[in-house]
Amino acid sequence: MKLSQQIINPLEVHGPTIEGEVQPLNYKRIALDMIDSSPLESLTCSALKTAYKRKNIDFPVVFERDLIIGQRDFGQVITALENGSSFVYILTSLRPGNITLAHHVLLTFCSGLQRCYHIPVIVQVCDIEKFYLEELVLEDIQKLYHDMVPQILSCGFDQNITYIFSNIQNSQFMYPNIIKIQKLISVQEIMDFYSLTINDIAGFVTHPSYAIAATFASSIPSLATHSQAWRCLCIYFCEKDVHYRLARNIACNIGETPPATLALKIFPGLRSVGTNMLLETAANSIFMVDTAAVIRKKINSCLSGGRETIEEHRKLASALSTYKQVIVAITAGFVQGAIIEKDVAIEMFRFLCPTSNAFHALVSKYENGLILSGEMKKEVIAIIQEIVISYQRGLQL
Protein backbone atom coordinates (compact mmCIF):
# COMPACT_ATOMS: atom_id res chain seq x y z
CA MET A 1 0.00 0.00 0.00
CA LYS A 2 1.45 3.36 -1.06
CA LEU A 3 1.24 6.01 1.66
CA SER A 4 2.43 9.62 1.82
CA GLN A 5 2.25 12.24 4.55
CA GLN A 6 0.22 15.43 4.35
CA ILE A 7 1.94 18.65 3.33
CA ILE A 8 0.79 22.05 4.58
CA ASN A 9 2.66 25.19 3.57
CA PRO A 10 1.92 28.34 1.53
CA LEU A 11 3.05 26.68 -1.70
CA GLU A 12 1.46 23.24 -1.38
CA VAL A 13 -1.45 21.67 0.51
CA HIS A 14 -2.68 18.09 0.44
CA GLY A 15 -3.78 15.57 3.01
CA PRO A 16 -2.13 12.18 3.42
CA THR A 17 -2.54 9.96 0.38
CA ILE A 18 -3.36 6.25 0.25
CA GLU A 19 -2.87 4.58 -3.13
CA GLY A 20 -2.90 8.02 -4.75
CA GLU A 21 -6.20 9.09 -3.14
CA VAL A 22 -5.97 12.30 -1.11
CA GLN A 23 -7.41 11.87 2.39
CA PRO A 24 -8.90 14.56 4.67
CA LEU A 25 -6.43 16.89 6.36
CA ASN A 26 -5.33 15.90 9.85
CA TYR A 27 -6.11 19.07 11.79
CA LYS A 28 -4.86 17.64 15.07
CA ARG A 29 -1.43 17.35 13.46
CA ILE A 30 -1.68 20.85 11.97
CA ALA A 31 -2.67 22.33 15.35
CA LEU A 32 0.34 20.69 17.01
CA ASP A 33 2.63 22.16 14.35
CA MET A 34 1.22 25.66 14.94
CA ILE A 35 3.67 26.43 17.75
CA ASP A 36 2.44 28.82 20.50
CA SER A 37 -1.06 28.79 19.01
CA SER A 38 -4.11 28.05 21.14
CA PRO A 39 -7.86 27.57 20.65
CA LEU A 40 -10.20 30.54 20.57
CA GLU A 41 -11.28 31.52 24.09
CA SER A 42 -15.00 31.51 24.92
CA LEU A 43 -14.80 34.98 26.51
CA THR A 44 -13.36 36.42 23.31
CA CYS A 45 -16.11 34.76 21.28
CA SER A 46 -18.79 36.17 23.61
CA ALA A 47 -17.35 39.68 23.35
CA LEU A 48 -17.30 39.39 19.56
CA LYS A 49 -20.89 38.17 19.42
CA THR A 50 -22.00 41.16 21.51
CA ALA A 51 -20.05 43.57 19.31
CA TYR A 52 -21.51 42.16 16.09
CA LYS A 53 -25.02 42.29 17.54
CA ARG A 54 -24.45 45.90 18.61
CA LYS A 55 -23.62 46.83 15.01
CA ASN A 56 -26.42 44.65 13.57
CA ILE A 57 -23.93 42.51 11.64
CA ASP A 58 -24.41 38.77 11.16
CA PHE A 59 -22.07 36.83 13.42
CA PRO A 60 -19.55 34.83 11.32
CA VAL A 61 -20.28 31.11 11.23
CA VAL A 62 -16.57 30.27 11.47
CA PHE A 63 -16.72 31.07 15.19
CA GLU A 64 -19.53 28.56 15.76
CA ARG A 65 -18.56 25.56 13.59
CA ASP A 66 -15.06 24.61 14.68
CA LEU A 67 -13.48 26.44 11.73
CA ILE A 68 -10.89 28.39 13.73
CA ILE A 69 -7.85 26.17 14.19
CA GLY A 70 -5.77 28.51 16.34
CA GLN A 71 -4.94 32.04 17.44
CA ARG A 72 -2.18 34.05 19.04
CA ASP A 73 -3.05 37.20 21.04
CA PHE A 74 -6.40 37.50 19.26
CA GLY A 75 -8.15 38.00 22.59
CA GLN A 76 -5.74 40.84 23.43
CA VAL A 77 -6.61 42.59 20.17
CA ILE A 78 -10.38 42.24 20.70
CA THR A 79 -10.03 43.54 24.26
CA ALA A 80 -8.08 46.56 22.98
CA LEU A 81 -10.75 47.25 20.34
CA GLU A 82 -13.52 46.90 22.92
CA ASN A 83 -11.66 49.44 25.07
CA GLY A 84 -11.63 51.95 22.23
CA SER A 85 -8.23 51.43 20.59
CA SER A 86 -8.09 52.53 16.95
CA PHE A 87 -4.57 51.28 16.28
CA VAL A 88 -5.32 47.79 15.00
CA TYR A 89 -5.20 46.79 11.34
CA ILE A 90 -6.22 43.52 9.69
CA LEU A 91 -3.83 41.91 7.23
CA THR A 92 -4.77 39.20 4.77
CA SER A 93 -3.12 38.08 1.55
CA LEU A 94 -3.86 36.32 -1.74
CA ARG A 95 -2.40 35.76 -5.18
CA PRO A 96 -3.68 37.80 -8.15
CA GLY A 97 -6.46 36.36 -10.34
CA ASN A 98 -10.23 35.98 -10.30
CA ILE A 99 -11.34 35.45 -6.72
CA THR A 100 -12.68 32.05 -5.74
CA LEU A 101 -15.33 31.05 -3.24
CA ALA A 102 -12.48 30.42 -0.77
CA HIS A 103 -11.21 33.99 -1.22
CA HIS A 104 -14.75 35.26 -0.72
CA VAL A 105 -15.07 33.41 2.60
CA LEU A 106 -11.81 34.91 3.87
CA LEU A 107 -12.42 38.44 2.55
CA THR A 108 -16.00 38.74 3.79
CA PHE A 109 -14.85 37.53 7.20
CA CYS A 110 -12.26 40.34 7.23
CA SER A 111 -14.72 42.97 5.98
CA GLY A 112 -17.24 41.97 8.66
CA LEU A 113 -14.65 42.52 11.37
CA GLN A 114 -13.73 45.82 9.73
CA ARG A 115 -17.35 47.02 9.83
CA CYS A 116 -17.75 45.85 13.42
CA TYR A 117 -14.78 47.87 14.75
CA HIS A 118 -14.16 50.39 11.93
CA ILE A 119 -10.50 49.43 11.50
CA PRO A 120 -8.25 49.40 8.43
CA VAL A 121 -7.80 46.28 6.31
CA ILE A 122 -4.61 45.70 4.34
CA VAL A 123 -4.90 43.21 1.47
CA GLN A 124 -1.50 42.05 0.26
CA VAL A 125 -1.56 40.71 -3.30
CA CYS A 126 1.33 38.27 -3.73
CA ASP A 127 2.10 38.94 -7.40
CA ILE A 128 5.79 38.05 -7.08
CA GLU A 129 4.88 34.60 -5.75
CA LYS A 130 2.43 34.14 -8.66
CA PHE A 131 5.19 35.12 -11.10
CA TYR A 132 7.52 32.49 -9.62
CA LEU A 133 4.89 29.75 -9.70
CA GLU A 134 3.31 30.17 -13.13
CA GLU A 135 4.43 30.56 -16.73
CA LEU A 136 3.20 34.15 -17.10
CA VAL A 137 5.01 37.30 -18.12
CA LEU A 138 5.23 40.07 -15.54
CA GLU A 139 2.83 42.33 -17.46
CA ASP A 140 0.12 39.63 -17.31
CA ILE A 141 0.61 39.27 -13.55
CA GLN A 142 0.24 43.03 -13.06
CA LYS A 143 -2.95 43.05 -15.15
CA LEU A 144 -4.39 40.26 -13.00
CA TYR A 145 -3.68 42.40 -9.94
CA HIS A 146 -5.41 45.49 -11.34
CA ASP A 147 -8.44 43.44 -12.46
CA MET A 148 -8.63 41.88 -9.00
CA VAL A 149 -8.89 45.12 -7.01
CA PRO A 150 -12.62 45.78 -7.70
CA GLN A 151 -13.37 42.09 -7.05
CA ILE A 152 -11.77 42.41 -3.60
CA LEU A 153 -13.57 45.64 -2.75
CA SER A 154 -16.91 44.03 -3.67
CA CYS A 155 -16.54 41.70 -0.67
CA GLY A 156 -18.01 44.35 1.63
CA PHE A 157 -15.00 46.52 2.44
CA ASP A 158 -15.09 50.19 3.40
CA GLN A 159 -13.00 51.70 0.60
CA ASN A 160 -11.96 54.62 2.79
CA ILE A 161 -10.04 52.39 5.20
CA THR A 162 -9.03 49.51 2.91
CA TYR A 163 -5.58 49.49 1.31
CA ILE A 164 -4.85 46.92 -1.43
CA PHE A 165 -1.30 46.64 -2.69
CA SER A 166 0.86 44.28 -4.71
CA ASN A 167 4.31 43.27 -3.51
CA ILE A 168 5.87 44.71 -6.67
CA GLN A 169 4.02 47.99 -6.21
CA ASN A 170 4.85 48.31 -2.51
CA SER A 171 8.35 46.81 -2.46
CA GLN A 172 10.07 50.20 -2.17
CA PHE A 173 8.27 50.85 1.12
CA MET A 174 8.75 47.32 2.49
CA TYR A 175 12.37 46.92 1.43
CA PRO A 176 14.06 48.26 4.61
CA ASN A 177 12.11 45.69 6.63
CA ILE A 178 12.65 42.98 4.01
CA ILE A 179 16.44 43.18 4.27
CA LYS A 180 16.27 43.23 8.09
CA ILE A 181 14.11 40.08 7.97
CA GLN A 182 16.37 38.31 5.48
CA LYS A 183 19.35 38.93 7.76
CA LEU A 184 17.60 37.10 10.61
CA ILE A 185 16.33 33.98 8.79
CA SER A 186 18.61 31.27 7.41
CA VAL A 187 18.19 29.61 4.03
CA GLN A 188 17.90 26.27 5.82
CA GLU A 189 14.97 27.53 7.90
CA ILE A 190 13.12 28.65 4.77
CA MET A 191 13.81 25.34 3.02
CA ASP A 192 12.51 23.37 6.01
CA PHE A 193 9.41 25.49 6.57
CA TYR A 194 8.40 25.50 2.90
CA SER A 195 9.57 22.00 1.93
CA LEU A 196 12.01 23.46 -0.63
CA THR A 197 14.93 21.67 -2.25
CA ILE A 198 18.17 22.96 -3.75
CA ASN A 199 16.54 22.64 -7.20
CA ASP A 200 13.77 25.17 -6.44
CA ILE A 201 14.18 28.70 -7.74
CA ALA A 202 15.97 31.24 -5.52
CA GLY A 203 12.87 33.45 -5.47
CA PHE A 204 11.08 31.03 -3.16
CA VAL A 205 13.78 31.62 -0.56
CA THR A 206 13.32 35.39 -0.58
CA HIS A 207 9.53 35.56 -0.95
CA PRO A 208 8.57 34.86 2.71
CA SER A 209 10.25 38.11 3.77
CA TYR A 210 7.60 40.05 1.78
CA ALA A 211 4.78 38.29 3.64
CA ILE A 212 6.47 38.93 6.99
CA ALA A 213 7.24 42.60 6.24
CA ALA A 214 3.55 43.42 5.73
CA THR A 215 2.85 42.47 9.36
CA PHE A 216 4.80 45.55 10.45
CA ALA A 217 3.02 48.90 10.07
CA SER A 218 6.27 50.63 9.08
CA SER A 219 6.00 48.73 5.75
CA ILE A 220 2.59 50.23 4.95
CA PRO A 221 2.61 53.84 3.66
CA SER A 222 -0.87 54.66 5.00
CA LEU A 223 0.13 53.52 8.52
CA ALA A 224 3.82 54.43 8.67
CA THR A 225 3.37 57.85 10.37
CA HIS A 226 2.47 56.20 13.70
CA SER A 227 3.88 52.77 12.96
CA GLN A 228 4.95 51.99 16.54
CA ALA A 229 1.38 52.38 17.78
CA TRP A 230 -0.21 49.89 15.36
CA ARG A 231 -0.89 46.21 16.05
CA CYS A 232 -1.37 43.87 13.10
CA LEU A 233 -4.02 41.13 13.18
CA CYS A 234 -3.26 38.50 10.52
CA ILE A 235 -6.31 36.55 9.32
CA TYR A 236 -5.63 33.63 6.99
CA PHE A 237 -6.19 30.00 6.09
CA CYS A 238 -3.80 27.90 8.13
CA GLU A 239 -1.41 26.92 5.30
CA LYS A 240 0.11 30.41 5.70
CA ASP A 241 0.76 30.06 9.42
CA VAL A 242 4.49 29.70 8.90
CA HIS A 243 4.67 33.29 7.55
CA TYR A 244 3.18 34.80 10.66
CA ARG A 245 4.89 32.48 13.11
CA LEU A 246 8.21 33.66 11.69
CA ALA A 247 7.02 37.28 11.89
CA ARG A 248 6.28 36.88 15.60
CA ASN A 249 9.66 35.22 16.20
CA ILE A 250 11.72 38.05 14.73
CA ALA A 251 9.56 41.14 15.38
CA CYS A 252 11.24 42.21 18.62
CA ASN A 253 14.69 41.79 17.06
CA ILE A 254 13.93 44.58 14.58
CA GLY A 255 12.00 46.81 16.96
CA GLU A 256 8.51 45.84 15.80
CA THR A 257 5.40 44.56 17.59
CA PRO A 258 4.62 40.85 17.02
CA PRO A 259 1.41 40.43 15.02
CA ALA A 260 -1.65 38.73 16.47
CA THR A 261 -2.98 35.82 14.40
CA LEU A 262 -6.24 34.06 13.65
CA ALA A 263 -5.99 30.91 11.51
CA LEU A 264 -8.98 29.35 9.74
CA LYS A 265 -9.26 25.78 8.56
CA ILE A 266 -8.70 25.33 4.83
CA PHE A 267 -11.52 25.73 2.31
CA PRO A 268 -11.35 22.61 0.11
CA GLY A 269 -10.93 22.24 -3.61
CA LEU A 270 -13.47 20.17 -5.53
CA ARG A 271 -11.39 16.99 -5.84
CA SER A 272 -10.92 16.31 -2.11
CA VAL A 273 -11.41 17.79 1.35
CA GLY A 274 -7.66 17.25 1.68
CA THR A 275 -6.91 19.99 -0.86
CA ASN A 276 -6.96 23.80 -0.83
CA MET A 277 -9.14 25.66 -3.35
CA LEU A 278 -6.69 28.58 -3.31
CA LEU A 279 -3.97 26.32 -4.76
CA GLU A 280 -6.11 24.22 -7.08
CA THR A 281 -6.59 24.37 -10.85
CA ALA A 282 -9.52 26.27 -12.37
CA ALA A 283 -11.40 23.01 -12.92
CA ASN A 284 -11.24 22.22 -9.21
CA SER A 285 -12.29 25.69 -8.02
CA ILE A 286 -15.47 27.77 -7.92
CA PHE A 287 -14.99 31.36 -9.00
CA MET A 288 -17.15 34.31 -8.02
CA VAL A 289 -17.64 35.02 -11.73
CA ASP A 290 -19.00 31.50 -12.47
CA THR A 291 -22.54 31.16 -13.79
CA ALA A 292 -25.27 29.26 -11.94
CA ALA A 293 -25.02 26.44 -14.49
CA VAL A 294 -21.24 26.14 -14.04
CA ILE A 295 -21.61 26.05 -10.25
CA ARG A 296 -24.22 23.29 -10.49
CA LYS A 297 -21.99 21.22 -12.75
CA LYS A 298 -18.92 21.67 -10.55
CA ILE A 299 -20.66 20.78 -7.28
CA ASN A 300 -22.42 17.77 -8.81
CA SER A 301 -19.03 16.44 -9.93
CA CYS A 302 -17.09 17.12 -6.71
CA LEU A 303 -15.97 14.28 -4.43
CA SER A 304 -18.86 12.83 -2.45
CA GLY A 305 -19.00 10.97 0.85
CA GLY A 306 -22.07 9.01 -0.21
CA ARG A 307 -21.97 5.21 -0.38
CA GLU A 308 -21.54 3.31 -3.63
CA THR A 309 -25.16 2.17 -3.76
CA ILE A 310 -28.48 3.54 -2.51
CA GLU A 311 -29.01 0.34 -0.51
CA GLU A 312 -25.74 0.80 1.41
CA HIS A 313 -26.42 4.50 1.95
CA ARG A 314 -29.90 3.88 3.36
CA LYS A 315 -29.06 0.94 5.66
CA LEU A 316 -28.66 3.07 8.76
CA ALA A 317 -31.89 4.96 8.04
CA SER A 318 -33.83 1.70 7.96
CA ALA A 319 -32.15 0.54 11.16
CA LEU A 320 -33.06 3.73 12.97
CA SER A 321 -36.74 3.16 12.31
CA THR A 322 -36.76 -0.19 14.14
CA TYR A 323 -33.92 -0.11 16.70
CA LYS A 324 -32.56 2.27 19.32
CA GLN A 325 -30.93 4.85 17.10
CA VAL A 326 -27.28 4.89 16.13
CA ILE A 327 -25.81 2.71 18.93
CA VAL A 328 -27.88 -0.30 17.97
CA ALA A 329 -27.18 0.32 14.28
CA ILE A 330 -23.43 0.37 14.89
CA THR A 331 -23.57 -2.77 17.07
CA ALA A 332 -25.52 -4.59 14.36
CA GLY A 333 -22.92 -3.63 11.75
CA PHE A 334 -25.10 -1.33 9.67
CA VAL A 335 -23.45 1.12 7.29
CA GLN A 336 -23.83 4.66 8.63
CA GLY A 337 -25.05 6.65 5.67
CA ALA A 338 -22.60 9.17 4.21
CA ILE A 339 -18.97 9.56 5.24
CA ILE A 340 -19.21 13.31 5.81
CA GLU A 341 -15.50 13.67 6.63
CA LYS A 342 -14.73 12.96 2.97
CA ASP A 343 -17.53 15.00 1.43
CA VAL A 344 -16.39 18.21 -0.29
CA ALA A 345 -19.87 19.76 -0.61
CA ILE A 346 -20.60 19.26 3.11
CA GLU A 347 -17.27 20.84 4.05
CA MET A 348 -18.09 23.86 1.86
CA PHE A 349 -21.55 24.00 3.41
CA ARG A 350 -19.89 24.19 6.84
CA PHE A 351 -18.32 27.52 5.81
CA LEU A 352 -21.31 28.86 3.87
CA CYS A 353 -24.64 27.88 5.45
CA PRO A 354 -25.97 31.04 7.16
CA THR A 355 -27.81 29.27 10.01
CA SER A 356 -26.41 26.57 12.26
CA ASN A 357 -29.77 24.82 12.65
CA ALA A 358 -30.04 24.33 8.87
CA PHE A 359 -26.43 23.16 8.68
CA HIS A 360 -26.74 20.55 11.43
CA ALA A 361 -30.11 19.34 10.12
CA LEU A 362 -28.71 18.66 6.65
CA VAL A 363 -25.58 16.97 8.00
CA SER A 364 -27.67 14.74 10.28
CA LYS A 365 -29.99 13.64 7.46
CA TYR A 366 -27.08 12.93 5.13
CA GLU A 367 -24.92 11.18 7.73
CA ASN A 368 -27.79 8.93 8.79
CA GLY A 369 -28.74 7.94 5.24
CA LEU A 370 -32.05 9.81 5.20
CA ILE A 371 -31.04 11.80 2.08
CA LEU A 372 -28.77 10.91 -0.81
CA SER A 373 -25.71 12.76 -2.09
CA GLY A 374 -27.63 14.36 -4.96
CA GLU A 375 -30.31 15.67 -2.59
CA MET A 376 -27.68 17.12 -0.27
CA LYS A 377 -25.77 18.72 -3.13
CA LYS A 378 -28.96 20.36 -4.39
CA GLU A 379 -29.18 22.36 -1.16
CA VAL A 380 -25.47 23.23 -1.20
CA ILE A 381 -25.72 24.38 -4.83
CA ALA A 382 -28.62 26.69 -3.96
CA ILE A 383 -26.61 28.36 -1.16
CA ILE A 384 -23.52 28.83 -3.33
CA GLN A 385 -25.52 30.18 -6.27
CA GLU A 386 -27.22 32.69 -3.97
CA ILE A 387 -23.86 33.89 -2.59
CA VAL A 388 -22.28 34.18 -6.04
CA ILE A 389 -25.26 35.93 -7.67
CA SER A 390 -25.44 38.45 -4.81
CA TYR A 391 -21.71 39.11 -5.17
CA GLN A 392 -21.97 39.58 -8.95
CA ARG A 393 -24.77 42.12 -8.53
CA GLY A 394 -22.57 44.12 -6.16
CA LEU A 395 -19.65 43.90 -8.59
CA GLN A 396 -21.75 45.47 -11.35
CA LEU A 397 -22.83 48.47 -9.26
Identify the notable features of this structure and list them briefly.
six-stranded mixed β-sheet, 17 helices, globular, 2 domains, Rossmann fold, three-stranded antiparallel β-sheet, Tyrosyl-Transfer RNA Synthetase, 397 residues, alpha/beta
Provide structural commentary.
- This protein is of the alpha/beta class and 397 residues long.
- The chain has 2 domains: 252 residues, Rossmann fold; 105 residues, Tyrosyl-Transfer RNA Synthetase (Orthogonal Bundle), CATH 1.10.240.
- The protein contains 17 helices and 11 strands.
- Strands 6-11-10-7-8-9 form a 6-stranded mixed sheet, sandwiched between helices. A 3-stranded antiparallel sheet has the order 1-4-5, with no helix packed on it.
- Strand 7, helix 4 and strand 8 form a beta-alpha-beta unit.
- The protein is globular, with a radius of gyration of 22 Å.
- About 2% of the residues have low confidence.
Annotate the secondary structure layout.
Layout: E1 3-4, E2 7-9, E3 12-14, E4 17-18, E5 21-22, H1 27-33, H2 42-54, E6 68-72, H3 74-82, E7 88-94, H4 101-117, E8 121-125, H5 127-133, H6 138-153, E9 162-166, H7 167-184, H8 187-193, H9 203-206, H10 208-213, E10 231-237, H11 241-250, E11 260-264, H12 292-301, H13 310-320, H14 325-331, H15 344-352, H16 356-367, H17 373-396
Parallel strand pairs: 7-8, 7-10, 8-9, 10-11
Antiparallel strand pairs: 1-4, 2-3, 4-5, 6-11
Helix pairs in contact: 2-3, 5-6, 12-17, 15-17
